[in-house]
Design goal:
The chain has 987 residues and is an alpha/beta fold. Helices cover 60% and strands 7% of the residues. The strands form three sheets. The chain has a six-stranded parallel β-sheet with strand order 6-8-9-10-7-11, sandwiched between helices. The relative contact order is 0.04.
Amino acid sequence: MTAQLEHVTVVFAGQSESWAKWIDHQIRAAGRRTTLVRWNPLRRPPTVQALGNLMSAPGRILLVIDDWYERLERSRFDAWAGVLRQTLPEYRDRIAAVSVTAQPMPDAVIALAPVELRGLRPEVARSRVLECAGVPAPGALIDLRRGPRFPDDPPEVWRRVPRRNRRFIGRTELLEQVYATLSAAGRDGATVALRGPGGFGKTQLAAEYVHRFAGEYDIVWWISAAQRVTARQQFAELAPEMGLTDAGDLAATIKAVRRELDDTARPWLLVLDGAGDPEPLRDLVPEGRGHVLVTTHRGEWAAHAETIEVPPFERRESVAFLRRRAARLTDDQAQRLAEAVEDMPLLLDQMAAWLDLNPTVSVNDYVRDIREGRPDRFGVMASGQYPKFEVAWAKLINSLREGSEPAWQLLNLLVCFSPDVVPVRLLQTARHGDLPPELAELISEPSSWNTALRKLSEITSMRIEYEQGPRRLDTQTVGTLRMHRLFHRYVRSVQAPDDAERYSAAARRVLVSADPRDSAQAGNWARYAEIIPHLEPSGALQSADDDVRDLVLNCVEYLRMRGEYHDGWWLSRLAVDNWRPKFGDTDRSVLVAVHQLANMLRRLGRYAEAEEVGRENLRRLSGAGQVRPIELIRAKDGLGGTLMALSRYTEARTLFEEAAASAAEELGGENVPRTLSIRSNLAVAVGLQGHYAESLVQHRRIFEARVELLGGKDAATLNSALRSAWMLRLLGRYREALAIQGHNSRVHSQVLDRNHSQTLHAEHNLALCARRDGDLQFAHVMMRGVREKLLRRRGALHPETLMVSCDYAMLLRQLERTAEARELAELTAAQYAAQLGEGHPYAIGARDNVATVMRDMGETRSALELSLRTVQEMEQAVGREHPWAIGCAKNGVAALAAAGETESAAALGRDAAERSARALGESHVLTISLRAGLALDLAELGEVEEAETLHRDAVTRLTTVLGPDHPQTHYILERHRPYWDFEPQPI
């Protein structure tokens, strides 16, 4: 008997699992054995035997009382109450109860004398639990921070979770299936997708899961995932909660949050509500030990998650729900109503609400109307898609029109926004003049506003959340409203055309008023992310209003600033498609949208499409009359940038020269900011042509002008100094380049963020300068750090990451980490080829790097074949006189010599040295090293005198250029075989 008394059986219904686990932990920590029993009266017949089976458990029985009794229809509740009264006296000495509900308890439950646990401090609640379980308080109390968290304490991080729906009923097996699936994953984490058609209650099921099992998590984050822009912004807003800063680039912030979730030991739950296609959301699904819960109607999520199908209600659930929602319904009426709409939860909720608000209406007549599916009888044209929906919704809307005109008018306005999260805060802070007159006063007065929204919520099943009022701190007002997409679509379809236009215009005015008009400020980013989902439903993209079009362009610019190039492409394309036919090619807004569209395509690496957009825009502008000169300048500048990325350097240079000349003439001279920007692009194009000395001269002139105009610490000035140092390095003036770049990098770190793209460019060049100056360890630490930052912020495929990875691979080779170098060089070459095409100079040069490493690894014949192929490909891509073609030839010489083909090596080496002297000069490092390599081959062929002359001349020149102690001088002096690295250039 003593052993039995020491055992405690904790009995709970499914919705109180977090409490049950906490109670169980406290009892076990006090030294007693326990058994957890999930016992759901909804699933058992109300008989003495059913309760007797439960009471047969050994030892003491502790019942966890929640509000399960509210989920029983009246007859079933009465039956259980009778069983409890009949059984309780027999087991009274073994039964105790604790209450975890804030709801009033009926007499049958009060008879159990449950002890209240809610609203207490954890240590007080523990004492009560132990007392109820008959467990003496332990001498040494267990640290409450260990084990499950006290369920009454909210998770440390809790955001945007909808309020618990007190009318939620049933779905017990589904909830348990979700919990079991997520829990079974253990430390590996898991993703579950609740899939089903619209109106089946997926969101409500997810919300109930979150509230029911909140005690299991330290972090709970709810994301409205129907709109990609909104979902990504809301995911990034988790950063400060994880101790991270927003890096400005949204993708980088998302990566940082994902990495933190992957690494943290804190249990977390992420909900993606209303998700569509999984592909745009895949980077919002971490792979750590936490849980992801998705609600969706898309079957494609099966490839990314354990899918649980969400069916309609079971009939008994429908009946229980209807009778609870509309008390006047009999079991038979609820049965017939549920049958008429096939147990769809959304429609059941709306119909029950309507019947409850219309108590004199015959339920039988209402069921008949729904069954017949004739919406035309109620003033609505049938769509042929949802006849049963339409009848119910037609009655609902007629009730609003006739009985609550303010609520009907407000609904007309609300459906002109996106349904996922209606921007009620924007409406509350809107100017009176932006709103329809009949709604201006209603929205400004909190009591009227809240009354109208509550009315809508009651009759349409829209979910509302309260928050502090925007104007009065002592007022609670509706802060969030969610409308079902099916209902939203239906109301839009039945709006009168005049009403639709009038309310849409008001919605657009509200959005314009909410525009911060500064997308560069981080404090405005959340607002733009909030506005963007409403552009399409409000008709903003079709609007002729200049303020509305400026709003759209500001949203596009926000997306560019945040690095959201795919969404920026989508929005700018919609703007161009809608505006160009109406306003023409030369309209200011059209031109800005086209410019942004090409820019987004470039950022996405879709250079051929960007070129097509840019050429078409330039053609249209060139053929139009009365075009502002700045528009042609911008078009040529933009197209030039695209052509540089496509390696069409000569054509890009021509466009930049034309744009710079026009800008100097039209904008006030060569040294105004816009002209300097174009001149900088021109200098980059000249450098990409291989004319390093000419490019250096241009960059230095631009630098001097920017210092005078903008100051030495402006970002544009710093960029000119960086470009100048880059050209000095390519010219072989390593010490000079290192001195300038060292200072430039320090100032970048002071003026810009350490993770800013331009700062990383500066540190990358500093690493390259240090490497060329012989400081390999510093170069390695610096370049590795830059690459790690870019991998975290941009990902492996971003152009900036690829550029650094290409250089890092060859630095690893020089450090004799050959296997690592080979792997990274091959990966980079493949990625360049995939992005830019096999014939792009960057892809060819990266393959040439691979050939160099292959030669180091003894793969002589394969290295020779690849090297000679890249020689031909690079000459075809950029011309024989380009330094890249000459550099590939230099490696071809080394490959031929390694294969024993010395005569061919000497012939190619002599030709390459002559080309290098013409292109870069006799004293350039590339020319000198080619002559040194030629000396090695001539000596091998027996032409000793010429070989010695070339060798002495090479050593003398290198000593003059680099100094006698420079590692490269020693390298040549010791007669090692020279080689060349391909280095991609920033564009």
